[in-house]
Amino acid sequence: NAGVTQTPKFRVLKTGQSMTLLCAQDMNHEYMYWYRQDPGMGLRLIHYSVGEGTTAKGEVPDGYNVSRLKKQNFLLGLESAAPSQTSVYFCASSYSTSGTLFFGPGTRLTVL
Amino acid sequence: GENVEQHPSTLSVQEGDSAVIKCTYSDSASNYFPWYKQELGKGPQLIIDIRSNVGEKKDQRIAVTLNKTAKHFSLHITETQPEDSAVYFCAASRGGYGGATNKLIFGTGTLLAVQP
After folding, report:
1. Whole-angstrom distance, CA of residue A104 vs CA of residue A2
2. Which tens digits make up the pLDDT trace of B14-56?
3. What pLDDT shows up at residue B102?
4. What residue of A is the nearest CA neighbor of B41?
5. CA B17 centroid distance within chain
6. Low-confidence ranges of chain A (pLDDT < 70)
7. Is the dihedral of CA B6, B7, B13, B15 positive or negative?
8. Rounded-to-integer distance, Cα A98 and Cα B53, Å
């Protein structure tokens, strides 16, 4: 099993550009999450999904959109990137609401 | 809002010594407390967790203690080794009981350096 994979690993955007980060998991998990990690701030939840076709807002959802069209995939979109969105983005999945989170390797995004 | 404070932010120990990382949480309804280890360039990985009906849990050189009255929990690593060097995150959640999702609130992380 590959676990949780993320593409791309690195990306540089200019302010105002858009992009989509892809997360895929092969563990048949119902729950998927997008976090951002910034120095000195830990991991903060952006959006999450409790199943195929569902999405919900986390702590810091502004400027991001998500979609979960297939159970194994969770997409994070930035419609108009801003320098404040420079961060490392982690996708995670879990089997249940109280289960272990399995994280992907991360995507380092820089917005100039 | 809900908050988890973690101390220290950096910790340097000699190989073989013990390391202790402490966290406090604000949401008294929290009942699930995991610890994640993040190695350089990788995603966080669960190393141990504890639920509110347990005061202490051990797994080989790693232990976690929980004091619900004081709303704090700690990670203890004994006989540290260079491969223990990483960033450690504590987290807290309501654990999903009653239908809530597993929305973990993370601490800000501790960079542990084990000197050979």
Report:
1. 10
2. 999 999 999 999 999 898 899 999 999 899 999 999 987 779 9
3. 61
4. A105
5. 18
6. none
7. negative
8. 14
| Interchain pair B44, A48: CB under 8 A | no
Interatomic CA distance for residues B30 and B113, integer angstroms:
30
Q: Residue A106 and residue B42: Cβ atoms within 8 Å?
A: yes
Amino acid at B50: I
Q: Which residues of B touch A97 (CB under 8 A)?
A: 95-96, 99-102
DSSP A43-87: EEEEEEESSTT--EE-SS-TT-EEE-SSTTEEEEEESS--GGG-E
Tokens read off for B49: 């967790």
How far does CA B47 lie from the centroid of its chain? Answer: 9
Average pLDDT over all residues of chain B: 91
Q: Do A42 and B44 touch (CB under 8 A)?
A: no
Q: What is the 3-state secondary structure (H, E, C) of chain B?
A: CCCEEEECCEEEEECCCCEEEEEEECCCCCCEEEEEEECCCCCCEEEEEEECCCCEEEECCEEEEEECCCCEEEEEECCCCHHHCEEEEEEEECCCHHHCCCCCEECCCEEEEEEC
Residues of A with CB under 8 A from a CB of B: 4, 31, 40-45, 48, 50, 56, 58, 90, 92, 94, 96-101, 103-106
